[in-house]
Amino acid sequence: MAQIVLFHSAYGLRPAVHAAADRLRAAGHRVHTPDLYDGRTFDDVEEGMAYKEELTNDELLRRGVTAVAPLLAADGPDGPGLVYAGFSLGGAVAQNLALADDRALGLLLLHGTSDIRDDASTAVPVQLHVAEPDPFESEDWLNAWYLRMTKAGADVEVHRYHGAGHLYTDPDLPDHDAEAAGRTWAAALAFLADLDG
């Protein structure tokens, strides 16, 4: 059983995030779903991104740090650590937090990544699920991201889903692709089970 922090996308903490958390809990994991948007949700990605820009990346990261701090403190300095996970924008937040946490157990990225500093160093196992093509995660970007993440020392596994929309795991969005979502969750649960075992 892993302790997972699952961050929402630019749409906010929507029902699909709660459903994903319930899916992970049904597999025996403890899951936390911080609300980085203070209760605001959006039906339109442009509106969600505009709100994200209003908050700023630094503020989102600060909110992410604030959300995980009590979990890390409760486990103590010798505790088992956290698995960081997130959808799209939430994946970027999760990645930044995982790379800053030398006790991170894993990083599960759904539809999104973030830039990596040149001096980054980590041994965290990483699983990325992304549409192919993806308007927010270009082929060139993903290739560079993969090279920089492996250079940092991460064990990276990438799953691509041809023809799926960007946020294809969210059944309430036009991007939804049930077949791709099913394969994603099967692989993600296996990844988490390996971290636990």
Description:
This protein has 197 residues and is of the alpha/beta class. It has a single domain (3-196), classed as Rossmann fold (3-Layer(aba) Sandwich). Helix content is 43%, strand content 17%. The protein contains six helices and six strands, in the order βαβααβαββαβα. Strands 2-1-3-4-5-6 form a six-stranded parallel β-sheet, sandwiched between helices. Helix 3 (57-75) crosses helix 4. The N and C termini lie close together (8 Å).
List the helices and strands and how they pair.
Layout: E1 3-7, H1 15-26, E2 30-32, H2 45-55, H3 57-75, E3 83-87, H4 89-99, E4 106-110, E5 125-132, H5 139-151, E6 155-162, H6 178-196
Brief digest:
By secondary structure, the protein is of the alpha/beta class.
Descriptive tags:
alpha/beta, 6 strands, globular, six-stranded parallel β-sheet, Rossmann fold, 197 residues
Low-confidence sequence ranges: none
**Helix count?**
6
Helix and strand run: EHEHHEHEEHEH
User: Would you count the extended β strands for me?
Assistant: 6
**Relevant CATH superfamily:** Alpha/Beta hydrolase fold, catalytic domain
Instruction: Give the class from helix and strand content and strand pairing.
Output: alpha/beta
Mean pLDDT: 95
Helicity, in percent? 40-55%
Largest sheet strand order = 2-1-3-4-5-6
Fraction of residues in β-strands:
15-25%
Shape: globular
Distance between the termini: 8 Å
Q: Briefly, what CATH class?
A: Alpha Beta
Q: What radius of gyration results from the CA coordinates?
A: 15 Å
CATH topology title: Rossmann fold
Number of domains: 1
The largest β sheet comes out as: 6 strands, parallel
Return the CATH architecture: 3-Layer(aba) Sandwich
